[in-house]
């Protein structure tokens, strides 16, 4: 039976980090599920428990939480070949404190926690993949935490656009401003400054 190209996209993503045999691929794809979201659909809502790891095959998503003043605070942005999730909820099995919503029509490949834990035993390369992914995610989180408290807004913006090329055009300005912890007006100023500096 021919494997869905969307599932193969995820397999290729795995193979960028670990080696997979044909029988491994069959085991993995049998446990995957494809989810289609329309723009503004929710993948996860506050209060729900995250029970899947989710890979963006097509489209984009963003994650946010609402503070005590009712303001949306963007915590994650995600595009093709990225993973998006509330890892706190997934790992702790406690209700999520955030929303994950489609920014565009989006195709997700997801795997349940139970199926993923089965694969750790059946396909050791999957366990190795996630060990390396979690290490990378932790390093990224530490870097962002450090930047948030010690780096000026312009440096944050410059790091964002150079690290995540082409992502800025995919999301509304208010969302990027929220992610960077600045106002939309200040983001506009920083964009003009950056364009001037690189031209």
Automatic annotation (TrEMBL):
Domain of life: Bacteria
Residue stretches making up the Cyclic nucleotide-binding domain: 16-119
A Pfam cross-reference name: cNMP_binding
Signal peptide interval: none
UniProt name for this protein: CRP-like cAMP-binding protein
Organism: Chryseobacterium aquifrigidense
Taxonomy of the source species: Bacteria, Pseudomonadati, Bacteroidota, Flavobacteriia, Flavobacteriales
